[in-house]
Fold this protein.
Amino acid sequence: MTDSEVRPYKFVVRIKDELCTGCENCLPLCPYLAMKNIGNRVYVLEEKCRGCVRCLPACPEEAIYPVKIYLD
Ligand code: SF4
Ligand code: SF4
């Protein structure tokens, strides 16, 4: 059995700082209010993000990417 089978995890998205222009295309697509614009760029609140990736195709800069995070 590997670590990934026993450790609790979930998927979230992150945003590449250097690519995000703060256009907010992604913001209205998040049903869980997990995205916030702070200082002209968007951040993901990982505790709220459910990894549904609805926001991902909205980004013209391809700045949004999914990651697996461990919860322990
Ligand atoms: S992956 Fe889903 S829950 Fe997470 S920020 Fe994007 S739209 Fe919101
Ligand atoms: S759509 Fe992309 S560039 Fe626009 S605010 Fe969201 S992450 Fe940033």
Summary: The beta strands are 9-15, 35-37, 42-44, 64-70. The pocket of iron/sulfur cluster (ligand 1) is lined by residues 13, 29-30, 32, 34-35, 44, 49-55 (CB under 6 Å).
